[in-house]
């Protein structure tokens, strides 16, 4: 995390995880994560954020791999959002973005656009 200026914060992340797989018949999968995002405080109550992440994943099978089986995938996500802090305990936010998944063949490819409106509270 880097505080570029008093109003702008930039964060980067690199990760790798080995997980059991519930998506396919694979024994486990190896997932990597590369992301960067930034937050800009327009004023003390209003902030704008945005970022990008890429998540390549490789599925490991314990035996022969059948035809048309998911062996690897990559998800690319671009997102942005706006948050309004009504008080220290209450804030409202709207987020949106676009996700694209690519895999060998076209059977497992998809695109997704999402939007979210939320309320955050702290006790």
Quick structural gist:
This protein is 0% helix and 67% strand. It is elongated, with a radius of gyration of 19 Å. It has 123 residues and is mostly beta strands.
Structural features, described:
- By secondary structure, the protein is mainly β.
- It has no helices and 7 strands.
- β6 (90-102) and β7 (110-121) form a beta hairpin.
- The protein starts with a strand and ends with a strand.
- The mean pLDDT is 92.
Order of SSEs:
EEEEEEE
Low-confidence stretches: none
Number of helices: 0
| Secondary structure category | mainly beta
Residue share in helix: under 10%
Spatial strand order of the main sheet: 1-2-3-4-5-6-7
Proportion of strand residues: over 45%
Q: State Rg.
A: 19 Å
The average pLDDT value, as a whole number, equals: 92
Which geometry do the CA atoms define?
A: elongated
Strand count, sense and barrel status of the largest sheet are: 7 strands, antiparallel
Keywords, please?
123 residues; mainly beta; 7-stranded antiparallel sheet; 7 strands
Q: What's the helix and strand layout?
A:
Layout: E1 2-3, E2 8-20, E3 28-41, E4 46-60, E5 72-85, E6 90-102, E7 110-121
